[in-house]
Design goal:
By secondary structure, the chain is mainly beta. The chain has one helix at 50-55; strands spanning 12-17, 23-28, 32-39, 42-49. It has a two-stranded antiparallel sheet.
């Protein structure tokens, strides 16, 4: 599952272009980690992208 529970960041689609300019479809997946965080006062396992972890949107449970 590549979707952040906090910001909603998920898989995006694009086109890979080779050196000879042949084009094919590709996916861009966010760096989503499964972490134990405090949600509504209780510790819970959630999926969070590293940007949310780094910025402080997610409070980790120890």
């Amino acid at each position: 599952m590549a979707k952040c529970d906090f910001c909603g960041k998920d898989v995006k689609f694009g086109i890979k272009v080779s050196h000879s300019h042949r084009r094919s479809n590709r996916t861009f997946k966010p760096n989503v980690q499964r972490v134990k965080a405090i949600v509504d006062g209780t510790p819970k396992r959630v999926h969070a992208c590293t940007r949310c972890l780094r910025s402080g949107k997610v409070t980790r449970a120890v």
